[in-house]
Amino acid sequence: MQYAFDMATGLYWSARVFLLFLLLGVSASNAEETSAPTSPIEAAVEEESDPEPEPPTADSVTRARVSGELFERGTRVRIANANVFVLPQKLKATTDSQGGFVVDGVPVGQPFTWVVNVAGYRKFEKEDRISDGNLKRVFYIERDSYFVYETTIYDQAEKRDDRTRSTKAKELVQTPGSFGDPIKAIQNLPGVNRPQGISSQVAIEGSAPGDTRYLLNGHEIPLIFHFGGFTSVIFPEVLDSVDFLAAGYGPEYSRAIGGQIGGTIRSPRRDRTYGLAFVDLFQSGALLEGNLGANGGFFLGVRQSYIGQVLKAAANASGKESDFNLTLAPSYADQIAVFEHNPTPRHFVRLTALRSSDTLQFLLDAPVGRPASGRGTFFNERTFYRLIPEFNYRFSDDLKWRSSSALGNDYLRFDIYNDYLDFKQTVLTTRGELEWKVSEPYSTYFGFDHRYTWTNLALRFPNASIGGASSTSAALEANESLQSSEIGLYWRNRWSPPGTAWTFFPNLRLDYFKVTRELIFEPRLAARYALLPGLTLRGALGLYAQTPQRQELTRTFGNQNLLAPRAWHYTAGFEKDFRGGRSSGLVWICDFWYRDFDRLVAASKDFVTRNGELVPERYNNRETGRAFGLSTSLRFTGRPLTAQLSYTLSQSRRTRPEEGEFRFQFDQTHILNAIVAKELTENWTISSRLRYSTGNAFTPIVGAVFDTDDDVFRPIQGGLNSDRFSGFLSWDVRLDKKWVFDTWIMSFYVDIQNVLNRKNTETLNYSFDYSQSEQVSFLPLLPTVGLKGEF
After folding, report:
1. DSSP code at position 151
2. Which residue has the higher pLDDT, 4 or 758?
3. Under CATH, domain 61-141 is a member of which superfamily?
4. Residue 626 scores a pLDDT above 80
5. Per CATH, the architecture of 164-790 is what?
6. Which of 14, 225, 592, 623 is the most buried (most CB within 10 A)?
7. Within 13 A of 757's CA, how many CA atoms are on the CB side?
8. Contacts of 711 (CB under 8 A, 6+ apart)
């Protein structure tokens, strides 16, 4: 019965609907047949008098599927996992890993608004209407800020020991006086001495500049800065990080009793081709990066300076020696190429090629206001290149292998008057490391590194200037070759006992130096204790050794019986993070360090018997030393203000049997660096740096005697390093501006070093009879203006 009733009901309603449609059709037909035709004029009047049509109902609106892509404005970086809204229709889509999105149901012919609101970006709103059949959209959203101001970023996940400070180099580092170079931020760290004059070397925590090693992807290069320290030899934009290894650093590296500074190349971006070009008053260059095949990427870059020509023009324009007494000017050039490939997710292959050259010569043909006669000649050139292949393989997440090699050549030419130094060296280095995460609390690393060099050294200098040997002014001239092999094995361990706040780093290293015929066992230990949330205590000690300089080991003007200088490092300190997990806030780092040096190489005036012949000793290992100090830094990160204050209080002393203890030449009691940067509106930022350091020590000349044999005055020296130059003070200011377009960015900057135009004394020039002296400063007020385009 129920089934029959349902059938009857259905037939009843179907009939009613059929009759309704039939009546509508008949009415429309009758209306069409009975409507009278109208003239064109009557039709136009009727059309004008018709009221505006009502908006179509939701059921009658045509809808479409719209696809699109979301990019970061200026950089064209694809933005993933961002919500894209269509309002007021309340439609939503989320971008995929490539920034793509698809929105269904977008109304055709009706106005609507696209809205994208992503953290760190300005809110994007754009009105739209689909009417031409174009169903593809591309949007560019603008970041809140395009300035990356980072003095140092301490990455605990990457740091292997607490004395490694890593500077993460992103797009740019806006540090005044840095020319946008993140490696130059090293000069602002506590414990780093201010380099003297045009020196490109770095002295770390009371050690000599020659005790610092410089690394590129783990392999030694002869220098990290160009003459004068204007910029580093590595393009800032290709750097992933810069590591500063101070007292108590780990066992992976050696042959440096002072410390290490290393740069690591980042992987090229592969989603598209990127490029940049820049030009300023002192240098210009370009860089290109992008994908290379399905699984590869590349960098290609060149840079050329013309700072010497600029300074020469400034000196000529000055016309007053009192206003511009700089006598030397540097020039440099760099080229880099990087090719990277990942055949499989487990494999990593990279080839890095770097070449760098520096020249240094007289700024003017003659000193300002003086004749050119008697000046002589001066020329200094330094060139090196490295070819570094790398191969890494990941067996599993817990077992990894890393290996690399480097082949290169170092060249140094130094001419002064009729004397010269010609240094040529071919270098081959290799590294390998196996990382094994045995368990969650324990990881171990086994590794080796090897360095082989072929050195040719040609030299002509006054005999008395080599090794301090007393003799007449007759020149000593020689041409020698030297081969050297240095191999090291290391074992690093990291152990965090479960249930404790301790982390221990028991490490061992074994070095063999062929040139000194020594096998040196170097224990290195470190520990860390998490006392409170955000407060970590740490300490380290270890033995470090390095080979003497090549010229000190030659047969003719050195001592082939020298031993390797050594140093014990001791350090203790703490790090307090007040941020409490936030991205902005204050971090306080403080370290006490002590270094005990022995077997240091010193010049000798003694004579020794070798092979039955009495000959000058020239050098020996009878110098010892000690250095100690306190380094502290306060770093505030936030927006729009970032600031860092670092201070070092230190003493460095050396001791020789014939002279007792004396102040070290590179001793700087006080070193202060204060940096402040503030973001302004519309992508402007201003930053400032104040630097102060105690002047370097020097040995004064207190008189002179006339040498009738050579018809010259011989100086009489006072106490060894008993005097100091005046303190160094410099205030630097930098202003940056970025104009951001959809597909490229233009940057403008003004960088002014030594705003106060202070004449910081770097050395002294003496008259021919040493009766008068003149202070020589390095750089006056030095402004530079630059433009940079990125696409």
Report:
1. S
2. 758
3. Carboxypeptidase-like, regulatory domain (2.60.40.1120)
4. yes
5. Beta Barrel (2.40)
6. 225
7. 6
8. none
